[in-house]
Design a protein that fits this description.
Elements lengths: L4 E9 L4 H12 L4 E7 L4 E7 L5 H10 L3 E2 L6 H36 L6 H16 L1 H12 L5 H21 L2 H4 L9 H25 L1 H7 L5 E5 L5 E5 L8 E4 L8 E7 L1 E4 L1 H4 L5 E3 L4 E2 L4 E2 L4 E7 L5 H14 L3 H31 L4 H15 L3 H20 L2 E3 L2 H7 L4 E5 H5 L5 E7 L2 H12 L5 H9 L9 E6 L3 E6 L2 E6 L1 H6 L6 H11 L4 E7 L3 E8 L6 H10 L3 E5 L4 H11 L3 E3 L4 H13 L4 E5 L5 H6 L2 E5 L4 H6 L2 E3 L5 H36 L3 H4 L5 H20 L6
Parallel strand pairs: 15-22, 15-24, 22-23, 24-25, 25-26
Antiparallel strand pairs: 1-3, 1-4, 2-3, 5-6, 5-7, 7-13, 8-11, 8-13, 9-10, 9-12, 14-26, 16-21, 17-18, 18-19, 19-20, 20-21
Length: about 725
Amino acid sequence: MNEHIITATFPVLNMACAACSAVVEQTLKQQKGVIDATVNLAAAQATVQYDVRVTSPRKLAKAVKSAGFVLVEPSDDNAEVVAGYHRDRARRWRIRTIGSMIFFIPLMVLSMTMPNIAYLPYILWALATPILFVFGVDFYKGAWQQALHGRANMDTLVAVSTSVAYLFSVFNTLFPDFWLQRGLEPHVYFEASAGIIAFVSIGKMLEERAKDNTTTAITKLMGLQPQDVTRIADNGEMQVVPISSVVEGDLLMVRAGERIAVDGVVSSGESYVDESMLTGEHMPVRKYEGSSVYAGTLNGKGVLYYKVLKTGDSTLLSQIIHFVQEAQGSKAPVQRLVDKVASIFVPVVFTIAVVAFVVWLLLGGEDAFSHAILAFVTILVIACPCALGLATPTAITVGMGRAAQQGILIKSAEALENTCRVTSVVLDKTGTITQGSPAVVHAHWCEETLAKQVLYDIESRSEHPLALAVIAMLYGRTAGEITQYESLPGYGVTACIGAERYCIGNDALMTLHGIALPNELTRMAESWTREACTIVWVAAVDRILALLAIADPLKETSEQAIRALKQAGLKVYMLTGDNQATAESIAHKVGIENVVAGVLPEQKAMYVKKLQQNGEVVAMIGDGINDSAALAQADVSIAMGHGSDIAMDVAAMTIISDDLNRIAQAIHLSQLTTTTIRQNLFWAFIYNVIGIPIAAGVLYPCCGFLLNPMIASAAMAMSSVCVVSNSLRLNKKR
């Protein structure tokens, strides 16, 4: 990608409903230099792709401000800014709710229990006025701001409906004779206008509190990095310094129970580190010299000294936070339909309200005007686009956050939605099903103590991958002196320890040196060979000391994970560049029937394409550069987190740990999230489909029922709260 094109996430404040987020998005897209922009109402943020040579965050903020909203320039604490904004709004709405209720409760009691007391309309007027113009002033400010730009939103609906009811009531209070002379009762609706403000305020308070909860996953991730670290100076002195002063190459110390501050590699010390906050794995990981450590992980009981490799935005934790924030700001395909509906929603509602008003005036009988006013007000109140606008982004935000906490990094809402449609899963072998590096999987010791020391003394001089596997098994020993070391390509190595010569290699090396192979061990070697293992013999000049089998071992979770995928009704395939015998051996162990071996990278992509042409929705899982073409071809691409950077860049989803069980969890989470989106949209649409006709008075001719504006306002408020609450249920679903 062009180095001048960047993608940034900005908190956006003061958005009230879907119409607001649509305005902000359209405003950003219209700016020169902006390539694309998406706005997430629930997360209160905009994700903008733009050319830094043409525009800047300051210019974007200025444009958004001119549209009546506030765009905050991105920083390291974006999530905390948004969370603080929601908390502040929840606090303000709580104050306004309490204040409006203090006036509304006596207003309701008086209007319902003492309808005939003297000067009642004036008393109700006095109680309603502060509710509307003190505690509900934000609705009128918001409506006015939108009107200045020739637009309408939820604030407009509330402001117009309450103003109409209030002004109509004021007129009837001051000039009752106007109606009495015409034989009509001068009704007042102060309790309706005040009730709308009171109930909508309750809904706003609950909504902001719930929105704050949707961003807790990111806030928790951001809180994992300590602010101060212990740095070891060149003279050995320990210094407590702020994390901002740490640079690559510094030597840091982390004590027992402290969090690791940045990514690095252990230079000395040994401990167990809890990496569950990054990988979802709750089993602590042993760390020793040469082990990688990551920012945000929790050190156990030992002390570790580690050299800094990555700081700031380069750390794995920072990248996770960045990707999740971008993903939460992205839009699922279904959201495009919702955006189109929301953009025309308010004008359509006004049209329906005006039509209902006119119909009531013409056909409503002696109370035609009062009923027309009530219908107009009630339609504007009940038809709020908030629930519609929150339906998809709240579910996406919660789903992404939960995935991140489980060690599943999903890069876009589209990937999350597409994952639930997967019918076939294609797995690479090396590094995906297997661990990706050779290890000793079987060992038979004839003379264990001597054999282990000989192995360590000789193999510690070699850089061959098989030798490294042996050294890893024997880690912690001290190598002794050897002489006459000789490497024989295709056979193995020989060397002398003291006066004794030893051989380490294949059976051909043993034959070359005239060393007899016992029948029992030969049969054992043949059995291990059938398991796709490489056989290593260890011998002195006159006898066998040990027999080892080295292979790329299966990951502990592979068999269980593949069984879970098959139980979910998915077809599972394995593609590998390895030979057929090894591929079939691995596939048999994990229960995969569909195996293709000896394939080149481009052939993997072609195989994925062939499955797609047969109607399959394909998820490709890989970890290497050779998997990148197939990952790009797949409908859903999943990279294993310990693989190559290229694979992770191409993939739409990354499993941060090596646990293949996360794939089934990701698919299940996608299904839960998509189901939640559909539930939210169903209730948001059905609420309006049913509510607007009832508010217009369709039930009046058959049963004399007219919806009270106060009940409409309560229903409108609860619709948004229900949608957000339903999304938050994702955190508890299994």
